[in-house]
Amino acid sequence: MSELIPITITTPLRKFKGHEEHVIAVAVFPDKRRMVTGSGDKTLCLWDLKTGFMLKKMEGHCNWVWRLAVSRDGRLIASGDRGGEVIIWHGETGKLLTKIEAHSKFIISSLDFSPDGTVLATGSYYDKMTKLWNTKTWEPQGDPIECGVFVNCVQYSPSGELLAIAKDYNIQIYNSGTRRRVVSFKGHTSLNLSLAWTLDGTRLLTCGNKDDPTIREWDTTTWKQVGDPWTGHTNRINAIAIHPAGTFVASASGDNHVRLWRLSDRRTIAVLRQSSSTICVTFSVDGNHIFSVARNDKMISEWTVPEGIHPKAWTVPQRIQTKACTTIATTTVRDACIDGDLSANEELLMHDINANAMNHTPDILAITTARIACVNGDLSTAEELLTQDINTNPNNYTSYAHRSFKTDSTVTQSIGIRPSLTGYISKGMALCGKGLVLDARAAFDVASMYTDQDSDIVHFLLLIKAIALFNADQHHEANLLLKELATGCPNTDTVACGIVQAYLQVQLGIKALDGARYDEATGHFTAAIDLSSESDIHEICEDLVVLFGWDLKSLWRKAHHKRCDALLRTGKLQDAVKSYQHMMTLTDETTNADCLDWSNGNALYTASGDAAFAASDYDKAIDLYSLAIDLDSASDVVFANRSQAKLNKMRWEDALLDAQKVTKLNPSSHIGYQLAHAALRGAQRYDEAIEAFTIMLSKLDDAPEVQIRDLRQQYVCPLEAEGVIRRAVGTELSNAPLRLLNTSTGLLCDRVAQLNSFKTSPEYKELLSSITKRSDLEMERIKEDQDVRELKGLGGIAKLQSFCTIARDAGYFWAWMDTCCIDKSNHVEVQESVNSMFIWYRHSALTIVYLSDVHPSSQSCTLASSVWNERGWTFQEFVAPKVVIFYQKDWSLYLDDRSPNHKESPAIMQELEGAMRIDAQALISFCPGMRDAREKLRWASKRVTTMQEDIAYSLFGIFGVHLPVIYGEKKQNALGRLLQEIVARSGDITSLNWVGQSSEFNSCLPADIISYATPPCSLPSLSEDEIQTAVSSLRNIVTVDSALKLYNLLENMNAPLFANCRLRLPCIAFRVTEVRRRQGHAAHSTYGVKADGLQDLVITTDETLIQFSRARPTQQIFFLVRPWDRHLLGLPDFSEQLTFADEGESVGDWSESESGSDDTHEPSSDSLGEEELAVDSDVHSRSLRLMVQLGQAFNALLVAQQRVGEYKRIASDHNIIAQVKDMASIDIVNIRTLDIL
Fold this sequence. Notes:
Blueprint (H helix, E strand, L loop, with lengths): L6 E3 L4 E4 L5 E6 L5 E6 L3 E6 L5 E6 L5 E6 L5 E6 L3 E6 L5 E6 L6 E6 L5 E6 L4 E6 L10 E2 L4 E6 L5 E6 L3 E5 L5 E5 L6 E6 L5 E6 L6 E5 L17 E6 L5 E6 L3 E6 L4 E7 L4 E6 L5 E6 L4 E6 L6 H4 L17 H7 L7 H10 L13 H7 L3 H14 L4 H10 L4 H7 L3 H13 L3 H11 L7 H17 L3 H14 L5 H21 L3 H14 L5 H4 L1 H7 L6 H15 L3 H13 L3 H8 L5 H13 L3 H14 L4 H13 L3 H14 L5 H12 L3 H17 L3 H5 L7 H16 L6 E3 L5 E2 L1 H9 L3 H4 L29 H14 L4 E2 L11 H17 L3 E4 L11 H4 L7 H7 L4 E4 L18 H11 L3 H5 L8 H8 L9 H4 L2 H4 L11 H16 L37 H12 L4 H12 L5 E3 L2 E17 L6 E7 L5 E5 L16 E6 L41 H26 L3 E2 ...
Parallel strand pairs: 1-25, 32-33, 41-43
Antiparallel strand pairs: 2-28, 3-4, 4-5, 5-6, 7-8, 8-9, 9-10, 11-12, 12-13, 13-14, 15-16, 16-17, 17-18, 19-20, 20-21, 22-23, 23-24, 24-25, 26-27, 27-28, 29-30, 29-31, 34-35, 35-36, 35-38, 35-43, 36-37, 38-40, 39-42, 40-41
InterPro entries: HET, TPR-like_helical_dom_sf, TPR_rpt, WD40/YVTN_repeat-like_dom_sf, WD40_repeat_CS, WD40_repeat_dom_sf, WD40_rpt
Organism: Suillus plorans
Keywords: Repeat, TPR repeat, WD repeat
């Protein structure tokens, strides 16, 4: 091997500057246009490789960015840092998508995406593991691979079937699908630092440290070392990269050098010198440049791959070897022609032709002027030149054969002079052109006799045969032959085979497209794209251009264009957009310019974008508008539409750029400024938004069109808007406390001060107000012009100061505490505060609960025993607000629970559920009002207040009532007024169900709320089968008339009326006929009681009852009454049902038959009687069902007559459970309304 002196380069082409600390990692994108870098400044930078400008700086890491990877499709970027965190970014926008705690607190040593992009592999030094992550869910895919020692590098094979892991002391290869280890080998004598696969996956290259600074090559079939180690570096090799063409290898070393190696002979061909140790290296996607980073360097160096060693200058297609029977001569002239120098060696070329006119080599139009004319598409010139050759030498059979490629008239003359490979190829092609397929096959079979059994020549001959058969409409046979060639001849020119398949797929696609078979056409064009690429098609298959006149230069682009056409014709616009964007991404600027002239689909894309926008599919609309803009960037309407779509996606900055484009394209229009105002507002750039809005108004005022000027009437100028804002703020503050603490200034502010403060705040411009409600300070200790932060921190003041600090630090401007923000000397303010407090809590952004008796060292369940859990006012303090945070005595978070809302903390809610004996979901989703009044009274029954009246006042908001606040009226009166309001407004009689002492307010009400602590007595109920059995038995006993009279009388009973301490109670009353005291109970009096229609029962009470019987009657009348409950009727309660609006239904949704339109038919006279019978039967059944319900045990009230028509309830310490003797004996005379005092 001759000595090769490497080229030494000391100066890079340019450097990329922008990081504030040293660069550690670099990766390039497959779009050939961008690069991403990571640095010790904890950021990533996106770069434009053409301009060298930084496109974006991406922030999100909390530690040095140590490793980078870009997915094969360029859609994802993965970055790993020294803290073990991996961040996934959007490949186009650089937006942070998700964070992964991949290797807790351990350096990410390596990252690599699988070729299909579905898995990300991560490795770490210190936790000694490799992990795989699903790129859809970003969850671990299977268990980690335990490596036992430092993981230095992980990399997928090109097929994705294998995963190589470079560990300190060995190399391990895993099957990526099964996770099973394929092989493990030592690798280098010391540490294995990096590795890389060759493009065909047949070799694995590995790098060693300073003790073995070599590159070793491993055969991936035997896993044995190939040849000797590559030597040249003198220090550790930190990174290795493979050239995109698979021809070169670049290595970065601690010896300050990047070495460029030739893979074929493992020799160094260039050395790039840097100022310090080189830590990473990679190639550009086109292979023309190398990017490297030196240790402690804040810049990325770009180097040009030295001229003269680029693959294009020395790579020779496999067919083009110096054999006697090659199809294309490899001469200096050919090289010049391929390089575009068509005149440089013309004299030498003509000399070769003239010197050897009887040249017997079977070259197919070898490098001659005629061949050049064919390649350039000038077929008439080629034929003329070949005719001149024939005229000069009539025995030159090759010239006859060559001319027959363009005209079949001379093929027989060529064979007649001398049979040859070229002649029979020409004959086969000519016969296929005439449709004589059998004869053509024979000609190709004879041609094979002249190949000297050279596999390359045979392969090329079969390619020509397949194409000729395809042109003769023998598509199936041609495709079958190509498939067999591709699979059966792996060592031949598979690239040429793929190009031929692609070309034929395009032809089939065109036929399908012409035949309106668009899905079929799409399939053919997609297959062609998969089989071909944009690079070097013409050079690889130049002979096919000569033979068949193909235009291979535009094959890939043509396939893309045609696929877009097919997708458009099938209405698959989104797929057409993706196909077009893919084509534009993978082509250079010149090709892009051609692509822009391809389609007239701008109007179609715009219309389709409008349709997607109308359907609220904004992502699709943005894509379609973007494609329309790519085709025509001068339409302000399309920019405006895309801006609006981006606004709907809250992409404020992108929307603003489009809005600015609108104003540039159409300066006189108000639309651009309107869009800019919306975008700036969304981006919280309020001053600029106001400026844009002002300009928009001026454009409307100056518009020449009347209809545009009329739009101005819809808007108000900023000065007018200020008044509207003030009124809106005033309305908002109407739901806020009258006095608030300013957490920034520490001042206690009344309503005027609040408004003034708001007007001077930044929040005024964004129409936001943060109002927080607080509690527990004394109004007398604070003056409205005093800063609470300057008061002496004693008792409640210290709590207030801490409270203000917590609220301010949480970002709230206003705060409220009940004991310091209510002027208790002002009766009107107290009245409004008590009645509005629930609403204030409800509208608060945050409620802070201070647990003064819960110490930091307290364990869980301490909250349950806190005094806070026993106070009356704290019940609404918890259930009303949406967000609550608990703080302990030292103002630390309870249980150190840092969740943003303790009402969503499972541990805390479970504790409160047990302490309050209230379902946690009921606490979280509490709604004020009268529903479930008895249960709400039970919740509050054991709570206490300092002021006795507050036990009732603290429940005003719970029940949604607004009543006068009268301190001094005493507890029984306050509670009585509340319960009176509940019964009067709701008709709910469950609040009459209690045991204990009667209230002075009304005997039907308890004297103390503790009477509701005992849940209502649970009485047995009948099953549906038992009810039906009872109804059936009553049919034979109770007449229809008597059942209906009872039902109708109860149905028409009025609801309870409760006013002025008097209760008018509809009920079923059973007259007491006997009361006898029983002996043996000293604490309470127990009486045996008998009543008409009821079974005998026992009553225990503190009151002394008159004893009487039928034999010894009394004038005072006693009743055991069953308060009437309308739910027993079994009719729907529409007050508890959803409205139509709640159900999402409107009258417009009803069909005609449902809404009683003309389609509704009157019943015939025959059916009318049947319907009446059915209705009567239904009412009778309901009546009997009611009687069955009334026959069950019930909670009874004992009442005694006071004056004529007035009664008083006699309280009992136990529930009075009564039972009728016979459900059939219930009489309408028992139904009455009693006035109870």
